[in-house]
């Protein structure tokens, strides 16, 4: 206990502890298909598709564009 915690009232001390050890917001995502709790960075690596049931989660436009191939193949020649 440091000097600041010593001079705080027990109530203020308790309020200060709220949120400690709490998981950061947005790290875990619940699957809408199988209700599994998924680790968000892993879900993003899998292009927002649940690895357990294949349920497709909402994907942001920027992420979707980044998932597309970077280089376009040249247009196909007309065969007429
Ligand atoms: Zn799932």
Can you walk through the features of this model?
With 80 residues, this protein is mainly alpha-helical. It has a domain at 25-66. 32% of the residues lie in helices and 8% in strands. The protein is built from four helices and two strands, in the order H-H-E-E-H-H. The chain has helices at residues 3-7, 10-17, 40-45, 61-67; strands spanning 28-30, 37-39. The chain has a two-stranded antiparallel sheet with strand order 1-2. A hairpin with a 6-residue loop joins strand 1 (28-30) and strand 2. It is elongated, with a radius of gyration of 24 Å. The chain starts with a helix and ends in a 13-residue tail after the last helix. The mean pLDDT is 83. The chain binds zinc ion (ZN). Zinc ion (ZN) binds next to loops. The site of zinc ion has 8 residues, from loops.
Quick summary of this structure?
The protein is mainly alpha-helical. The chain is 32% helix and 8% strand.
Rg of Cα set: 24 Å
**Side-by-side strand order of the widest sheet:** 1-2
Shape: elongated
Described by strand count, sense and barrel closure, the largest sheet is:
2 strands, antiparallel
Look at the structure and give the mean pLDDT. Answer: 83
Assign the structural class, choosing from mainly alpha, mainly beta, alpha/beta, alpha+beta, or little secondary structure. mainly alpha
Task: Looking at this protein, list some descriptive labels.
32% helix, two-stranded antiparallel sheet, mainly alpha, elongated, 80 residues, binds zinc ion
Detail the topology: elements first, then pairings:
Layout: H1 3-7, H2 10-17, E1 28-30, E2 37-39, H3 40-45, H4 61-67
Bound molecules: zinc ion.
Zinc ion is lined by residues 31, 33-34, 36, 50, 52-53, 55.
């Amino acid at each position: 206990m440091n000097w600041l915690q010593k001079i705080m009232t027990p109530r203020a001390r308790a309020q200060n502890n709220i949120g400690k050890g709490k998981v950061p917001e947005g790290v875990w995502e619940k699957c809408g298909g199988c209700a599994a709790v998924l680790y968000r960075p892993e879900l993003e690596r899998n292009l927002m598709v649940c690895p357990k049931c294949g349920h497709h989660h909402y994907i942001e436009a920027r992420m979707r564009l980044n998932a597309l191939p970077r280089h376009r193949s040249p247009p196909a020649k007309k065969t007429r």
